[in-house]
Structure prediction request, 320 residues.
Amino acid sequence: MKDNTVPLTLIGILSDGEFHSGEQLGEQLGMSRAAINKHIQTLRDWGIDVFTVPGKGYSLPEPIQLLDEAFILSQISEGTVNVLPVIDSTNQYLLERLDTLQSGDACIAEYQQAGRGRRGRQWFSPFGTNLYLSMYWRLEQGPAAAIGLSLVIGIVIAEVLQQLGARDVRVKWPNDLYLNDRKLAGILVELTGKTGDAAQIVMGAGINLAMKSVASDIVNQGWINLQQIGLDIDRNQLSISLIKELRLALMHFEKEGLTPFLPRWKQLDNYIDRPVKLIIGEREVYGIARGINEQGGLLLEQDGVTKAWVGGEISLRGVN
Prediction:
């Protein structure tokens, strides 16, 4: 993998939001101004806005808070948590290390070069503005017992964000978080294991905290970040809270399944009792969302009849 020492050092210097001249940066890092400019371009490739002002130098639009590995680890006494600046994908990082992991081990990144969303879509992952977190869990009961797991992850993340001040965060079946009817976070659950064997599960989440812009060919639906509602959440504290609460919830889920989480989902459901449409390939199914059942299926009422729909290739949209 490419050596990112210099770009990461530059981010550390520029993270104060002040101007730093190319000459000063070159002296600090022992290289030419032209070399500094080349590394600045790497930062831009990572989704970081770097201003260049003649006579003043380089600056970020505002200070950024970097993940503090030492602080995070000091607050989490059990298990392994890897804090990585640049990575292909937090889920992929764990999937490649399944043989070495224990339930609850986690990975957090500043930037994903190849972040993944549902159905192989790209997950836009600019450096230092959002949170990208994945966790491993082993379910001895096998793959069938993992049904509804993405719903549990959504519940936990929504509740943690609400506790940190984002009171209007809601869950959207089967794997998104919404705020003001726009996408705030996505969840990707990847599972390996055959029937009769334990299920090895990697759960990833990307949460929009402060990213400014996204190309429309990458994100094709309305999105929002917490900064847009005036909320600046401490990324380190958010990481700590999520890891702790996810571990507790997954232990609960392992013993009791999805049923104890149903009332919590109902409290958070963005589309409960609202008109929705399910998109199944080229087909659209309209009805009223009535929550979820014990198997994690979406309950949709049509003409007074309620039917459960399971995930797979189904997408849920609101209807105005």
